[in-house]
Specification:
about 120 residues; alpha+beta; Immunoglobulin-like; 2 domains; three-stranded mixed sheet; 7 strands; about 20% helix; about 40% strand; disordered N terminus
Length: about 120
Amino acid sequence: MVCATLLAKSEPEPEEGCIDFVTSVPGAKIYVDNVDTGKVTPSLICGLSPGTYTYRLELSGYVSVTGSVDLGAGQRVLVSIVLTPAKKGIGAGTILGVTLLGIGILGAVLFATREKR
């Protein structure tokens, strides 16, 4: 004899959703809720419960992008980002080189002026 008891759940399991990450330049690392997903763009991340998620996309040479997305039950949300190239700053080596060049030019001008007298 087989007896089975069926337990009814008060609420059904929420349907999982997906976030589809696409960037103008492929290969950006994808972080969701500050966790490295191990994936790069373009990529579809599924198995997410409904809710609000924060994301961060990082690619060397480009400005990192952060944002948030609301995911409903069974939804597939597209996050499409145009990455902006990072501005190259002036490093200490560049400043030193320009300073030395300026000193060299100033010295040459003073020397030439002195020779004319």
